[in-house]
Design goal:
Oligomer: single chain
CATH superfamily of the largest domain: Aminohydrolase, N-terminal nucleophile (Ntn) domain
Helix content: 25-40%
Bound molecules: 2-deoxy-2-amino glucitol-6-phosphate
Largest sheet: 8 strands, antiparallel
Distance between the termini: 10 Å
Number of helices: 19
Mean pLDDT: 94
CATH architecture of the largest domain: 4-Layer Sandwich
Radius of gyration: 25 Å
Number of domains: 3
Low-confidence stretches: none
C-alpha cells in the first residue's frame, strides 16, 4: 500500500524524505509528493510516477528541517497530480499524508462543501486537512484528535502545521506507523525499512493511538485521551539498504536467495536425532498440540497458496483436518471458530489488511491464531502475539518468491512437530526432518542447472492464454505459478487441478496453447500423464516440471524442466522455482517492470 515518511530534526528534511520514499517505493508507486514547513507556509512538490520524478521536481531545493512525504498506491481516484499526497487545507498551512481508506468520505465531504470548502482531488484523504482546519484552534494535537473522531475507516497519517514547525502529529488505525528515535532527529514511517538509516530505536504506534513528534522524540497518547507509556523497541532485522547484489532485478536476487532463506528458516529448529522440531515462538507444548482438532491457514495471494501447501502437509503427515482460507472471504463470512482449532495467519509483510482482519475476527471469537510472518514486529505478528518468523530477509520485489518457499518451510516444520504428537514414529520423524534439512541443497542443485527456462518463455511470451495444472501438492504450485506469470508479465493465464481441467477449462485450449504442468514423482503421477495426453490431443504445447530422471515425462514434454527428487510434501519448494523463473523471463521478454509491476503494491494495507 502507500508509503509514508516524515522527518523532524537538526538536518535538512528534503534529502532524507526522498531517500525514505525510495526505500518505501515498493509499497506503492503510482505517484509521490513532499510537503516541507517553511515560515510562510507549506513548500509542496508532487509528481505522478516514480520517486525519481519527484526528486527532479524538488531540484530547486528547500532547507526546511521538518516535513512529510508519501508514495501512493491509488485507492480513491485515478493516478493524477491532483490526487497525489500530501493534501493541504484551504489556507495551505496544514499538510496531510494518509495510508488507508476513509469509508465515510462522501458524508464528510458534503459537510465540508456545505461549509464552503472546495475540493481539488477525488481522494478520500483530502477531507482530512479540511477537517483538521475546521477543528484547529491553536492546538495541533487536539485538532487532529477532534478531526479523527468523525472519521470511519482506516488510517495511518502524518500531519504538518505551518503554525507549529516544531512538531508533527501522527495517528494510526489499521495502517502501520513506526517512530524512529534518532539523535537530534525523529523519523516516522509506515515501514521500519525507511527508518534504519537513522536509528534502530523505535516506538510502534498501535491502533487508536496518536503521537506528538518533535526532534527530541515522541509523546504517545490514546486517541480517546491519556498517555501511553510505550517501551522503545530495537529493529533487529537487517534492513541494510537492499542491494541488487549483481542481479538486474530484486526478483532475480530473491529467487536465487531461496536456498539461504530456507537455511535461515530451518536453522536451530529441526533436530534429526529427535526426529522432531521446535518453534519457540509458538509457545505450545506437545500437550497443547495433542488437543488441536483442526488447523486452518488464512492468507492472501501467495501467502494463501503457501497455506494450501502447509494444510495439505498437515493432513498428509499428521492426519488432522486442515485447510486454507482466503483471508478476505474468511473474515467477512461470519466464520465459525472452533475452540480446538489452531489458525495460522500467513503473511510476508505482516500488514495485509484482509489477513489482519481475519486475525482480529478469530481473536474476537476466542480462537487461537499464530502468525507465519516475514517482517519482524509487523502488525499481524504483534496482534497474534505468538507464531513463527520465516526469516526470509527483506523481500523488495512486489512479486513474492522467497517468502513463499520460506512460509511453506515454516509450516512444514510445524507439521513435523504436530505429526510427532500423533502418528509419526521417531524413525519416521527422522526421515521427515532429514527431508526438510536437505531441501536447501536440493534447491541449490536445481538453481545450479535451471533447465530450458528460455525455451519455455519463448512458448509463453506471445501466448494469448496459458493454463497451469497440477494435482495434490502441485495444485497450489500451479496457482502460484499462474499468479507469478500474471503479476510479472500480464499474460492471461489460469490454474486448475489437473483433474478439473477437463470439466470445462479444456475448452480454452487450441493449437499451440501453452499448458504448464507440475508433475513431480508422486501419488497421482499416472493420472497427470492422462491429463497431459488430454491437453496434447487438443494441440496444447506442454511445459512439464518433473522429477529429474523421469524420462517418460521428459519425452512427453515439449519443454522438459527437471528438478531434483524430494519427498512429495517437499516438492512445492522445488517445483515452484522454475515457475518463478518462467514468469521472470517472460516479463523481461515483454519489457515489463519486473520489481514494480503495474497496478500492484507490495503490501495491501486496505481492504
Ligand atoms: C504475491 O506475489 C503478491 N504480491 C500478493 O499476492 C501477496 O502475496 C499478497 O498481497 C499477500 O501479501 P502478504 O504476504 O504480505 O500478506
Amino acid at each position: 500500500m502507500c508509503g509514508i515518511i516524515a522527518y523532524i530534526g537538526d538536518q535538512e528534511a528534503l534529502p532524507r524524505l526522498i531517500e525514505g520514499l525510495r526505500r518505501l517505493e515498493y509499497r506503492g508507486y503510482d505517484s509521490a509528493g513532499v510537503a516541507l514547513i517553511e515560515p510562510d507556509g507549506v513548500w509542496l512538490r508532487r509528481a505522478v510516477g516514480r520517486v525519481a520524478g519527484l526528486a527532479a521536481e524538488t531540484s530547486d531545493g528547500c532547507t526546511s528541517k521538518v516535513g512529510i512525504a508519501h508514495t501512493r498506491w491509488a485507492t480513491h481516484g485515478g493516478v493524477t497530480l491532483e490526487n497525489t499526497h500530501p493534501h493541504l487545507d484551504a489556507t495551505h498551512r496544514i499538510a496531510v499524508v494518509h495510508n488507508g481508506i476513509i469509508e465515510n468520505m462522501e458524508a464528510l465531504k458534503a459537510v465540508l462543501i456545505a461549509d464552503g470548502v472546495e475540493f481539488l482531488s477525488e481522494t478520500d484523504t483530502e477531507v482530512l486537512p479540511h477537517l483538521i482546519r475546521r477543528h484547529y484552534t491553536g492546538d495541533p494535537l487536539e485538532a487532529v484528535r477532534a478531526a479523527l473522531s468523525h472519521v470511519h475507516g482506516t488510517y495511518g497519517i502524518a500531519v504538518a502545521f505551518a503554525d507549529h514547525p516544531d512538531v508533527l502529529i501522527a495517528a494510526r488505525f489499521g495502517s502501520p506507523l513506526v517512530i524512529g528515535l534518532g539523535d537530534g532527529e525523529t523519523v516516522l514511517a509506515s515501514d521500519p525499512q525507511a527508518i534504519v538509516a537513522h536509528t534502530r530505536r523505535v516506538l510502534y504506534l498501535d491502533d487508536r493511538e496518536i503521537a506528538v513528534i518533535s526532534a527530541d522524540g515522541a509523546k504517545v497518547q490514546r486517541l480517546s485521551g491519556g498517555d501511553v507509556n510505550r517501551d522503545v523497541s530495537l529493529i533487529e532485522a537487517d534492513y541494510a539498504v537492499a542491494e541488487l547484489g549483481g542481479h538486474e532485478h530484486f526478483m532475480a536476487k530473491e529467487i536465487w536467495e531461496q536456498p539461504d532463506a530456507l537455511l535461515r528458516c530451518l536453522r536451530g529448529r529441526v533436530q534429526i536425532e529427535r526426529g522432531n522440531a521446535k518453534l519457540g515462538g509458538l509457545n505450545m507444548t506437545p500437550r497443547d498440540m495433542v488437543n488441536i482438532r483442526e488447523v486452518v491457514t488464512v492468507g492472501c495471494g501467495t501467502a494463501y497458496h503457501a497455506g494450501m501447501v502447509g494444510s495439505m502437509a498437515i493432513e498428509h503427515l499428521a492426519r488432522l483436518p486442515a485447510h486454507a482460507e482466503v483471508a478476505s472471504e474468511f473474515r467477512n463470512r461470519h466464520p465459525i471458530i472452533p475452540p480446538d482449532a489452531l489458525y495460522f495467519a500467513v503473511s510476508q509483510s505482516g500488514e495485509t489488511a484482509d489477513t489482519l482482519g481475519a486475525v482480529e475476527e478469530i481473536l474476537v471469537k476466542g480462537g487461537q491464531v499464530m502468525g507465519v510472518v516475514n517482517v519482524v514486529g509487523s502488525s499481524i505478528a504483534r496482534t497474534c502475539g505468538a507464531g513463527v518468523y520465516v526469516y526470509a530477509g527483506p523481500e523488495i520485489a512486489v512479486a513474492s518468491t522467497k517468502a513463499f518457499t520460506s512460509q511453506v518451510t515454516a509450516l512444514l516444520v510445524f507439521t513435523l512437530m504436530l505429526a510427532r504428537t500423533r502418528n509419526q514414529s521417531l524413525a519416521q520423524g527422522e526421515n521427515i526432518a532429514r527431508a526438510l534439512l536437505e531441501a536447501p541443497d536440493k534447491l541449490q542443485e536445481y538453481l545450479d542447472d535451471p533447465g530450458p527456462i528460455d525455451a519455455a518463455a519463448d512458448l509463453v511470451k506471445d501466448a494469448k492464454y496459458c493454463m497451469f495444472m497440477g494435482r495434490g501438492f502441485s495444485y497450489p504450485v500451479a496457482l502460484e505459478g499462474a499468479l507469478k506469470l500474471k503479476e510479472i508479465s500480464y499474460v492471461p493465464c489460469e490454474a486448475y487441478p489437473a483433474g478439473e481441467m477437463k470439466h470445462g477449462p479444456i475448452a480454452m485450449l487450441e493449437d499451440g496453447t501453452p499448458v504448464i504442468v507440475i508433475a513431480p514423482r508422486g501419488s497421482q503421477r499416472d493420472k497427470v500423464i492422462s491429463n497431459i495426453k488430454e491437453v496434447q490431443a487438443r494441440g496444447a504445447r506442454t511445459i512439464i516440471v518433473h522429477t529429474r530422471g523421469d524420462d517418460e515425462m521428459a519425452r512427453l514434454a515439449d519443454v522438459s524442466i527437471p528438478v531434483p527428487e524430494v519427498r512429495e510434501f517437499i516438492s512445492p519448494l522445488l517445483t515452484v522455482v522454475p515457475l518463478q523463473l518462467l514468469a521472470y523471463k517472460v516479463g523481461i521478454a515483454l519489457g515489463r517492470d519486473i520489481d514494480k509491476p503495474r497496478n500492484l503494491a507490495k503490501s495491501v494495507t486496505v481492504e
